[in-house]
Structures are given as structure tokens and as C-alpha cells.
Amino acid sequence: MKFILRSAAVALAFAAGAAGAHVTLEYPAAAAGSSYKAAFKVGHGCGESATRQLVVDLPAGVTGAHPMPKAGWQLAVEPTRITWTAKGREDMLASAHYDEFVLVAKLPAAAGTLYWPVRQVCEQGSSDWIEVPREGQKLSDLKSPAATLEVLPGAGAGGHNH
Predict the structure, then answer these.
(1) CA spacing 20 to 30 A to 50: which of 77, 87, 101, 126?
(2) What is the residue extent of each domain of the chain?
(3) How far is CA 68 from CA 7, 26, 116, 120, in A?
């Protein structure tokens, strides 16, 4: 059963990231209650404009976030938000380049889908990757989907605790 759930989650995330036009997570599935490395993949700027800031809102139940510093970028850490801001124009992520913004956090104990709203601010303009599918709607139908993580039942789910 775990293999089927993981395969479905990976297929869902692959299909959602296939267009490559939005901010996605490197690892689309993780166990409930685990420590999770969230690597937000940024594949472009806003049109031709370079990315100067990335703002990630933590989903409900995600705790203890520790972001990875990036050379040339300033970090701001709030209880439910992590912000990376380029220190200068030369540090911005050019639209033609790819980069990752990483944090580690503890996932909630319950299985389910987590949506990570991400705001990508560029020299000119911004992209808000914040849309969440409504009941019966597919993630691939959204124009600006939030980064998605499928939280799978933890190793102890259905068993006994020690």
C-alpha cells in the first residue's frame, strides 16, 4: 500500500511539475511526522526579469523551519514565513538560470496534502504561486499552483507506538 501511495504522489507531483513553469518542491512526498528538506526549485524569473526575492509561507502544522543561507541573499525568518532577498542586483537570479531555496522543517503527524504558497518577486513584476485546487479540480488546471507535498502515513501509522 505504501508503494502505491508513494507512486501516486510522485506521479501527481511529476505531472504538476511537467510544465516547469512554476515553483515546485524537489521531493514531492514525505512521511508524516518526519523532518523534511523542502527544496523550492525556481526555473525562471518573471518574464525576462530576474528574481530578487522568494517568500515561502509554511503550511499549517509545519514547525521548526530552518532555512539554508544562500551567498548573496539575506534571510528573514518569521514563525510561518521564510524570505530570501538578494543583497544586490548582481546577486539576483537571472531569468535564464535555475536555483533552489532550501529549508528543513518538521511535518505534521497526519497524512494529507500540504500546499506551500510561494511569492516570487522580480525586478519587474512578481508571480504568486498560491493557488490550491478546489474539490474535484486538478492541480494541472491551475495557472499559478502552490508548491505541493504529499504527506504519507508515517512508519508507525496503523501500528503501535514505543
Answers:
(1) 77
(2) 2-152
(3) 29, 15, 17, 17
Q: What is the mean pLDDT of the chain?
A: 87
Count CB-CB contacts under 10 A for residue 21: 14
**Strand ordering across the sheet containing 126-129:** 73-78, 81-86, 51-57, 118-122, 126-129
- Find cell 512578481 and name the residue: 126
Residues 67 and 102: beta-carbon distance below 8 Å: yes
Query: Which residues contact residue 48 at a Cβ distance below 8 angstroms, ignoring those fewer than 6 apart?
Result: 95
Question: Is pTM beyond 0.85 here?
Answer: no
> Which architecture does CATH list for 2-152?
Sandwich (2.60)
Do 43 and 93 meet the contact criterion of CB atoms below 8 Å apart? no
How confident is the model at residue 154, as a pLDDT?
83
In degrees rounded to 5, what are phi and psi of residue 68?
A: -85, 125
- What residue type is 12 in one-letter code? L
**Max Cα–Cα distance, the chain, nearest Å:** 54
Q: Tell which wins on pLDDT, 18 or 44.
A: 44
Segment among 20-29, 33-42, 65-74, 121-130 with least mean pLDDT: 20-29
Measure Cα distances from 49 to 71, 98, 144, 145 in Å: 20, 13, 18, 20
